[in-house]
Amino acid sequence: MERLQKVMAHAGVASRRKCEEIILEGRVKVNGQTITELGAKVNQTDLVEVDNIPIYREEPRYLLLYKPKNYISAVADDKNRPVVTDLIRGIDERIYPIGRLDFDTTGLLLLTNDGDFANLMMHPKFQVEKIYIAKVQNIPTRASLNQLEKGVIIDGKKTSKARAKLLSSNEKNQTAILELSIREGWNHQVKKMFDAIGHPVMKLKRERFSFLDLKGLEAGMWRELTAFEVDKLRKMAQGSSLDI
């Protein structure tokens, strides 16, 4: 469920702050009941009316994008850099990315206009596995990879257990390709984890998000998630919340 003023703003009624004023003025009804206090929440099936006129509720959309390098994971950027929504054509709904990938990081990114779904995917209790492929400086030892797997300290916190695998190495250039699987999503986490063991990241790609992958897509391409995929992600997230 989402806050009423957020749903109204998302439907284009007014800014969120102005929508709060409209609610307090008693001009909003939910399923026929006048709402005059902030804090009310609604879901997709609720009928919301402003001045007795039903607001337009967008159909929920769920997209999987293969994010290219040098795109911001946002809908706008104050430095006028390209944003991921620039890559989406033919979608009228106002979608936004779930979480983020760094400007120079490529790979799998989900986008939606469904706030409930986005919150589920980003909630700390949803321990979704995310698999990254990284090119790093120098060739790590098994002992270094063990450090990653046991957890390293970044920003004063210890990361959870991970899985790390050396895929290939280049003795001449002193670089290595590694696979890292984590179940968290802290800011710049993967890069900071590799920094913590002395192997700065040169290139980074998110290969998988839970059971989703990039099969059939090239950088800049996207597809809609199937109803089955969305439902499976929801059930996984809700199950994680119940288990903890």
Description:
It is a single chain. The protein has helices spanning 4-10, 16-24, 115-122, 142-150, 189-196, 227-243, and strands spanning 2-3, 28-30, 33-35, 41-42, 48-50, 53-54, 62-67, 96-97, 106-112, 130-137, 153-154, 157-158, 163-170, 175-182, 201-209, 212-213, 222-224. The chain folds into 3 domains: 2-54, RNA-binding S4 domain (Structural Genomics Hypothetical 15.5 Kd Protein In mrcA-pckA Intergenic Region, Chain A), CATH 3.10.290.10; 62-125 and 212-243, Pseudouridine synthase I, catalytic domain, N-terminal subdomain (Alpha-Beta Plaits, 2-Layer Sandwich), CATH 3.30.70; 130-209, 2-Layer Sandwich (Alpha-Beta Plaits), CATH 3.30.70. The chain has 244 residues and is of the alpha+beta class. The chain contains 6 helices and 17 strands.
In short:
The protein is an alpha+beta fold and 244 residues long.
Outline the biggest β-sheet.
Answer: 9 strands, mixed
* Spatial gap, N to C terminus: 21 Å
CATH architecture designation of the largest domain:
2-Layer Sandwich
Could you tell me the radius of gyration in angstroms? 21 Å
Helix tally? 6
The count of DSSP E runs of length 2 or more, i.e. the number of strands, is 17
User: Approximately how much beta-strand content do the residues carry?
Assistant: 25-35%
Helix proportion range:
10-25%
The outline comes out as elongated
In the CATH hierarchy, what is the class of the largest domain?
A: Alpha Beta
Based on helices, strands and strand pairing, what is the structural class? Answer: alpha+beta
pLDDT below 50 for ≥5 consecutive residues: which ranges? Answer: none
The CATH topology of the largest domain comes to: Alpha-Beta Plaits
